[in-house]
Specification:
By secondary structure, this protein is an alpha/beta fold. It has a domain of 162 residues: 3-Layer(aba) Sandwich (Rossmann fold), CATH 3.40.50.880. A 9-stranded mixed beta sheet has the order 2-1-3-4-11-10-9-6-7, sandwiched between helices. Strands 5-8 form a two-stranded antiparallel ribbon. The longest helix is centred in the last third of the chain and has 15 residues. It starts with a strand and ends in a 15-residue tail after the last helix.
Length: 240
């Protein structure tokens, strides 16, 4: 049985309890043993993290201990998957650049606030995560992010929709859903999920999360089956 760790907390406006319970239910239906924690203490146990197949953060803002951040980065590099949504993953721990490096992006704005109507455009690709999923509309926050150019973009949204200082620039297609690799580990992110109700109003958003979490969780087994270690990634130089 695959194992998943969900740790939740931070800013309550993103409804970490409801969102995490939704994701836990999805994973349990897929046969996962899910451990849900209301603090970050478990991140201090590197051996426990290494036992997981998937880590799902639901923690907006706040801070993370340097040791905890390094432990998550090491576990994911070994093959443990990392998957999350909205501010719960890519607006977590704003002062931790290693976290941003690993997750692939950082929120910087949502022009117009909540209740913005916009389209999520699915990118046709070889990824099974988006197979058969068509473009869909969302009424929520439209996330403007600073994004790692190395990510594989699976869905985008067009900016600007709402007036703000950024409209002086050319229109851009902002990534909404992406994947990337961190060592042997798979990372999945979706900027959808400002509140739990978004997934009821936009079922395709939940399906993307379901597929993304499963995809990320497959990385550990792949690494084990192919004898992959982190040796080729290791570097003693100061990274941050």
């Amino acid at each position: 049985m695959k194992k998943a760790l969900i740790f939740r907390g931070g800013w309550e406006g993103h409804e970490p309890l409801l969102v995490s319970e939704r994701f836990a239910e999805v994973l349990r239906k897929e046969g996962f043993d899910v451990d849900v924690r209301d603090d970050q203490d478990v991140l201090g146990d590197i051996d426990y993290l290494m036992e997981q197949d998937l880590i799902v953060p639901c923690w907006t803002g706040g801070e993370i201990k340097g040791e905890h951040s390094k432990n998550v980065a090491k576990a994911v590099a070994s093959g443990v998957g990392l998957a999350g949504c909205h501010g719960g993953m890519c607006d977590a721990f704003r002062n931790d650049t290693e976290w941003q490096f690993m997750t692939g992006g950082q929120w910087v704005s949502h022009p117009g606030g909540d209740g913005v109507d916009y389209i999520v455009n699915v990118v046709r690709s070889s990824s099974p995560i988006v197979e058969g999923i068509e473009d869909f509309s969302v009424c929520s926050e439209q996330y403007y992010l600073h994004v790692d150019p190395a990510v594989e973009v699976l869905a985008t949204t067009r900016f600007p929709v709402v007036n703000y200082y950024h409209i002086s620039n050319k229109p851009v297609d902002m990534p909404v859903v992406w994947t990337k690799y961190w060592g042997n580990g798979r990372v999945f992110y979706s900027s959808l999920g400002h509140q739990d109700s978004v997934f009821d109003k936009s079922p395709r958003a939940q399906e993307l999360m379901r597929r993304g979490m499963l995809w990320a969780a497959e990385g550990k087994e792949y690494a084990l089956n192919h004898g992959l270690t982190t040796e080729r990634f290791e570097n003693t130089a100061k990274m941050y």
